[in-house]
């Protein structure tokens, strides 16, 4: 019997999830179609340069999803499902601190971590966990009732989890079992037709629309799916021209003449979807909830800790200068700050240690021959070595919170007189039962491994090894 490997399972799962979500949220299909059109146009206009941060095949197939769960037990089960697909928890994001509105969640992202696996299919799922123990959002009474509600639900059937564990252990599944796993996995993230308890949902919604979306229903669902695009500004224009309402801004770095770094994101506005509501007297009526949307992203170069510190500092400068200004004026200010302070070439980013690159010996040698220099910058400048940017595979808490916030039905409530409950990556690792990996360490390892190969190829082990 033929088997399906983990990366093939991952690619199939991402494709089926995308198909399912397009049926549930038709505007998402439009977003995918427009993204493909923009990518094809950019490829025609820029040629090979358009594929500097990933082949067009990878970019076109690329998706990230977002889901929300309520308890550490549910999060650990999510980790088992994605572990079957060769996806690991990477990064810790505290959206409680990143948002002005009430967003009581902490998050991680499940994704492949090996370079070859990322090239085959880089599917990621940004996964948020509700924080009902945080007294800034939940009273002791609501906390207790919410915990009771969450403890009683079952998000993932035992058969799905058993198949997931088998795929994670064996790194493949027989074709028939793979089909069953994929079917059960996609079903687990479909929007449920079960009636929503309107009074309970509304009570949570007064605290936070995100809390209601997580804890106000007896299932989970895809909150959004995200294709990747090579020109997000053009995508934004084309979606708007088609009459689809977009959020006010593109989150992340500004559009400018220099290298794309980190991540830029935007979305269309969450759409009102019909949902069945159960009233206090037991009767059922049709209502509407506005929680799901379609996001799109443009990925840039991964920054080092020093580069990230520069990025965060520049955002602070922009905030100070753009206070109470329009989104358009803020964009102009952001470009000005970027052009003044951010290196405008990959070469300078690399030389200043602000971004991650892999290094490979260049084909042929410099015309003057001789011995290669022992300095990495000179190796690149003289043509001995080629630097290739490492794609940023992760997320930005401020941008994620901005997307969430732009699609909320209300601001919610937050009592800042209370001290927030502490969560960090170590706590999340314990909740999942797996180490939450440090994204900086993953990028640094890619870069270091490539330098070791260069050192061996050019006999520079003492200098670069």
TrEMBL record:
Locate the coiled-coil region(s) and give their ranges.
Answer: none
What keyword terms does UniProt attach to this protein?
Dioxygenase, Iron, Oxidoreductase
Recorded GO molecular functions are: dioxygenase activity
Q: Tell me which EC number(s) this protein carries.
A: 1.13.11.93
The cofactors required by this protein are: Fe(2+)
Q: Which family does it belong to?
A: Belongs to the 2-oxoadipate dioxygenase/decarboxylase family.
Q: What is the name of the protein in this document?
A: 2-oxoadipate dioxygenase/decarboxylase
Q: What is the lineage of its organism?
A: Bacteria, Bacillati, Actinomycetota, Actinomycetes, Kitasatosporales
